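The material for today's practical consists of a large collection of protein records. Backbone structure tokens are a discrete shorthand for how the chain folds in space. An example says more than a description, so a record of this kind follows:
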Amino acid sequence: MRLTDFWTRLEQTFGPGYAASIAADQVLPQLGGRTIEQALDAGIETVVVWRAVVAAYPDRVPARLH
């Protein structure tokens, strides 16, 4: 998954403003206790980070974006 696709999906799920907040502030256990931004900066593949988002917010992420 390209990084631009990742951010598009995150914004479609949470809205532009809230997506940025989630990425910067929400620590996800699925990412080893990192935020989305920290995981991406550490070189974790975007598809792995996206799967962690889906796992953390299963009721929020639309099925078409899984």
Summary: The mean pLDDT is 96. Residues 3-57 form one domain. The longest strand covers residues 27-28. Helices lie at 3-14, 16-25, 36-41, 46-56.
